[in-house]
Amino acid sequence: MSPLAAAALAFAALIVLFVAVWAWQLQSRNAGMIDPVWAFSLGGVAVLYAAVANGDPQTRLIAGIGAMVWGARLGVHLWRRNAGRAEDARYRKLRDEWGAAANRKMLLFFLLQVVISMLLSVAFLLPVYRQAPPAAGWVALATLVWVTSIAGEALADRQLREFKADPANEGKVCRAGLWRYSRHPNYFFECVHWLAYIPLAIGPGGAGSWTFAMLLPPVLMAWLLLRVSGVPMVEAESAKKRPGYADYMRTTSALIPWWPRHSS
């Protein structure tokens, strides 16, 4: 199957899936369930690409398994965080702002997630269509970046989950582990994850002049997390609920882990 046909198939499947989730949230009133579905489905898109592509089998296997594991881990984490609980404050805020038009605008918002997913899926699409295997050094680099990102994000998620599970920490700011060095270490490692596939597209038989397009997924993810739905919305809510969060923002790096500054 050609890359264009594979992308068209993925696009159609995502539209059907996301519309179904939108219909589901009409009853559940929990739009936050789109988050785990997004992670699971994007991992599934990578598996689809790897299955239908006619590129190097080794690269298809690496990209497909790597994205599948990423999507499964993140999807399970987000499912546990959202299922059976009150709607995430981000979506509740949107619903309140949209008022009577909330259902229609939520559908458009979900369909926008389809477009974003397709842009991010470039990270998987280009490598699985390369015609020759990448050099061993590039594979090693891709593996190192991937393992670092998955392990780092999983560790950050676990540290925050354990912090919140302790009743003594109610209303407090998490500075445990990686959260001492970054206000959003999970977002940092999520951005790193999208760099892992770039080495798989480099070199003879790779993406050629299209290799530059591999920069789109990490740049897009960083922009979304830093400027749109990640840091701004999370920190606005945290600043309201946690008295020490303003000081945390002054002393701690927003994204890239770094030594904290002294409190003023």
UniProtKB/TrEMBL annotation:
Keyword Transcription regulation among UniProt keywords: no
Source organism, top-level taxon: Bacteria
Keywords of the record: Membrane, Transmembrane, Transmembrane helix
Name of the protein described by the UniProt record: Steroid 5-alpha reductase family enzyme
Pfam families xref list: DUF1295
Gene Ontology CC terms, in alphabetical order: membrane
PROSITE patterns named among the record's database cross-references: S5A_REDUCTASE
The keyword Endoplasmic reticulum appears for this protein: no
Transmembrane segments: 33-52, 107-129, 135-156
